[in-house]
Amino acid sequence: MEDAHDNTFLDVTEFQKIFGHDPGKDKYLLKLAVVGYPGTGKSSFIKKFCDQVFPTEHIPSINTEITSEVIRVSSSVIIEVFLYEVAGQTQYIDLKKLFVSGIQGVIIMFGHHYPYTFEKVPYLVSFIDKYLMTKVPKLLVGNYFEGHENIIPWQQAADLAKRLDIDFVQIDVKRHPRNVDKCIGYFISKLMPEVNI
Q1: Range with the lowest mean pLDDT among 71-75, 135-139, 180-184?
Q2: Suppose 168 and one of 24, 140, 182, 187 were both cysteines; which one would form an S-S bond, judging by CB atoms 3.0 to 4.6 Å apart?
Q3: CA 61 → CA 29, 100, 118, distances in Å?
């Protein structure tokens, strides 16, 4: 997994994912938005992280969907990660509503095989900056689709991320699920430095 200009990615794969809440534990909440245009793999990204599965058929999201997963970081610390998936269809992209929910970080996805989704990244970053009340970490995630013609090279995406002053990673959601976990680990390291990982 490569990034443009920061090496703060943590691997949360080894953290034990649990359901529910154990009394006596320090519990942290992490709210992340996953945005991007259709066909970028947002739903697959979330499914891989929360359910460890890759969907076999594509069903477009038509609204904002919220999914959560609880991670046991240590014997006394757990983090509940909420992922807010914003529908990719243009008519449903309404980030204004989303950002009243206390979002702490944003994953901006594009498909390396789909130039239109890459070209829209500056617009999404600008829109996010406009409507968020506070500055939050943003991570540009390029989803590499094996078997497709991946038109956007890594360096081009890394250069764009540098211009936008955000970090960048290239992942393959289907074949390398550990990289999905590392994206979540990135936000834990940025937003929860007090959590001893």
Answers
A1: 71-75
A2: 140
A3: 24, 20, 19
